[in-house]
Every structure is written in structure tokens, then in C-alpha cells.
Design a protein that fits this description.
heterodimer, A: 5-stranded mixed sheet, globular, B: alpha+beta, 3-stranded antiparallel sheet, about 25% strand
Chain lengths: ~290, ~90
């Protein structure tokens, strides 16, 4: 393709091709500090392309392609090319990755132990992870957490954090503006702005962390903590995994081990400060 | 119906992991995960490799559990066996 870049996020080497320079330039900015090895074969291929040659210029719209595609997915305008790239990268990992059990969950680590947070879009798992990652935690990822089926360790996938709507101002107030990508206003997912993880999180992205606490956050309502049994955590995480079925018995074994060895709680919280306070309190118990 | 005999799936085809109140069963033949609650795991365990009617199972379970009257337990066990059969975890002997 006309424009191409290779990016390594955690264990995944992406090869991203685009008909336009813009999305590739935006990715090169967000991932400038990530290790680069252009000779390494790609694990996942992403293509951002125009459906017809003239649509590169005339009302340019970005179609998503790659090893895996979602039939009938609507293209995005070129102004949202970075979002298209992010969606395409997520899709390739969600559908194609087999080396780890893939959880749709954010994660942060401290002292070699991981806190994993799983929840629907809007649960605040990304925002909590981003805010914790600005404190004395290592951000492992805001979207996917990888669990090694053999050893049970969690591995990071620290892509640029996708901040949405209210979370943008909350995080922007605390970080160097140079770590923020462009504001993508009015996307199908609302306003989006990417946050480049701290340099220490990128440097440590291959370091495993032992799962120590599983949280299922829910934003809104009074602060509350609900202990969760192994069975319910198992059911929720099978639903939060994009490759549980594909991994077969290896996925079953990894997930039963994870929920047995890791205390799990549902938490509700009215704002980020309350959410972080709950996380720290539960961590103090779990990490003993 | 109540005296129909079933045989459990061979033990090496199932991986059974108790998870608190739920038990997760991975069937290596179908690659499916089944989530069941008591008394289904106990029934599978009591059946072993034998062809069992509800009466047989009631007898075996009574050694460990307080089933009350075996007469009352049999239709309940027959229903549970139907559920296990629907999941493919037991089949008609």
C-alpha cells in the first residue's frame, strides 16, 4: 500500500498499510516511543483503504481490512482515520490472537502483580486504568489483557489509551499535552482522544505480572463493593474473552485457574476519585 | 421414563472443575463448556462408567447424601438425567 508502518504493542507486531498518509502519520506520532523492529514478521495485518480509487480524494472514506474483516462494517470519514486504524488493530487481535487467552479488560500492575478490570463500554475500566497509570501503577492496557495459558501470568497490551467523552478532560488536566493525540470529535463512539502511555509502561510492556485482583467496575451510583464468586467471575470472563472458544481446553484451564487464584469483586463508584479509592482499598487487602 | 438407563461420558473426555457454587465441565469431544449446579456433578460422579437408572443413582447417592425417600428422588433424578443428556454429558445406555 502507499503508506505503511510497523508497530509492536506488547507481543503483537502490526503491519499497517493505508491509502492515505494521515492515519499512518497519526499512528507514528502515538507510537513513536515504542520499540521498532521492521524486520520482524507481522502477527497482524491492517489495511485502511478506499473502496474506489477516486474515493481517496473525493469524500474520502476509510474502509477497514486485514486478516480478519467484519462484513458490512461502515467506513469512517478520513478525519477519523486514526479511529479506523485503532478499530482495525483491535479487530485483528480480538479475532486472530491465539497465543494467550485474550480478555476484554484493562490492567495495571504494581510490584509485579496485576489488577485486571473487566467491564462493558462505559464501565470506566479504561479511565480508571489511565488514571492509575499516571500514579504509581504501570499501565498494562486499557482494552485487552493477555493471560498466558501455560503459566497464568498476565501480559500487557499497552496500546495508546482511547479516552472517551468526559474522561478526556479529566485525564488531559493531569498529563503533558504532548502525550495526547488529536481530538476526534463526534465519532460513532463519541469524542475520542488518545493518550500515549508513560514511557516506563512502554519499556516494561513485555514484563509479565501475576494476576492478584479481578475487578468488574460499574460507573454510576453510590460507592459499593460486592464480592464475586469463582463461578460468576468465570462466566463474566468467558463473555469478556474474544478467543475463549477458539483456545479450547487451554482457554478453559487458563480461566478456571485465573478465577480460582484471584479474588474478584464487583465495584460501583460515582466518580473516578471514589473508584480509585475503592481500587486501592481492595488492592491493599489482595496484595497482602 | 423413570427407569431409563444412561451412561455418563467417558471420564477422560470430560474435565470437571468446581468453581464455588457452579461447576464448569469442559467436554473434549464437543469443545463446549457446560456450567452446571448441584446435583448434576454428583450424579455424573455417582454414575461412574456404569449404565445407571435413576434407581441405581438414588441408591448410590443415598450412601453420601440424605435423599429422603428414594421413591421421591427417582423422578427428580430422571429429569436431571434428561438435562445431562441434552448437554451430551450422558447418553442412553
Amino acid at each position: 500500500m502507499r503508506h505503511c508502518v510497523r508497530i509492536a504493542v506488547g507481543p503483537v507486531q502490526f503491519r499497517i498499510g493505508s491509502d492515505w498518509a494521515g492515519p499512518v502519520a497519526a499512528l507514528e506520532h502515538l507510537y513513536a516511543a515504542y520499540p521498532r523492529d521492521d524486520a520482524r514478521p507481522a502477527d497482524a495485518t491492517v489495511r485502511l483503504f478506499a473502496a474506489r480509487p477516486w474515493r481517496r480524494w473525493l469524500r474520502p472514506s476509510v474502509h477497514i481490512g486485514g486478516d480478519f474483516v467484519v462484513p458490512g462494517a461502515l467506513p469512517l470519514p478520513l478525519s477519523m482515520g486514526l479511529l479506523a486504524a485503532e478499530m482495525a488493530m483491535n479487530l485483528q487481535v480480538a479475532l486472530g490472537w491465539r497465543r494467550h487467552l485474550l480478555l476484554h479488560a484493562s490492567a495495571v500492575a504494581r510490584d509485579g502483580r496485576a489488577l485486571i478490570m473487566s467491564g462493558e463500554s462505559g464501565s470506566g475500566k479504561s479511565t480508571l486504568a489511565a488514571l492509575l497509570g499516571e500514579g504509581d501503577w504501570r499501565l498494562m492496557g486499557d482494552e485487552f489483557t493477555l493471560v498466558d495459558p501455560a503459566g497464568g501470568d498476565a501480559f500487557a497490551f499497552p496500546r495508546a489509551v482511547s479516552l472517551k467523552n468526559e474522561a478526556i478532560a479529566e485525564v488531559a488536566a493531569r498529563v503533558d499535552p504532548a502525550r495526547l493525540g488529536p481530538l476526534l470529535a463526534g465519532t460513532p463512539k463519541g469524542d475520542i482522544r488518545h493518550l500515549i502511555p508513560r514511557a516506563d509502561a512502554v519499556v516494561a510492556m513485555h514484563a509479565p505480572a501475576r494476576p492478584a485482583l479481578l475487578l468488574f467496575p460499574r460507573f454510576g451510583g453510590a460507592a459499593g463493593i460486592e464480592p464475586m464468586g469463582e463461578g460468576e467471575a468465570f462466566v463474566r470472563l468467558t463473555e469478556a474473552s474474544t478467543n475463549y472458544v477458539a483456545l479450547g481446553e487451554a482457554g478453559f484451564a487458563a480461566l478456571t485457574r485465573l478465577v480460582r487464584e484471584t479474588p474478584a469483586f464487583g465495584i460501583t463508584y460515582p466518580d473516578s476519585a471514589a473508584g480509585i479509592a475503592l481500587v486501592e482499598a481492595l488492592w491493599a487487602e489482595a496484595a497482602r | 421414563m423413570a427407569d431409563r438407563a444412561y451412561r455418563a461420558a467417558p471420564a477422560d473426555t470430560l474435565r470437571i472443575e468446581p468453581l464455588g457454587e457452579l461447576t464448569a465441565i469442559f467436554d473434549r469431544r464437543s469443545m463446549q463448556t457446560h456450567l452446571v449446579v448441584s446435583p448434576l456433578p454428583e450424579i455424573l460422579d455417582a454414575m461412574g462408567a456404569d449404565a445407571c437408572t435413576p434407581a441405581h443413582i438414588a441408591e448410590r447417592l443415598a450412601a453420601t447424601f440424605d435423599l429422603g425417600s428414594a421413591e421421591d428422588a427417582r423422578p427428580v433424578l430422571a429429569e436431571r438425567l434428561c438435562e445431562l443428556a441434552a448437554m451430551g454429558l450422558v447418553e442412553r445406555a
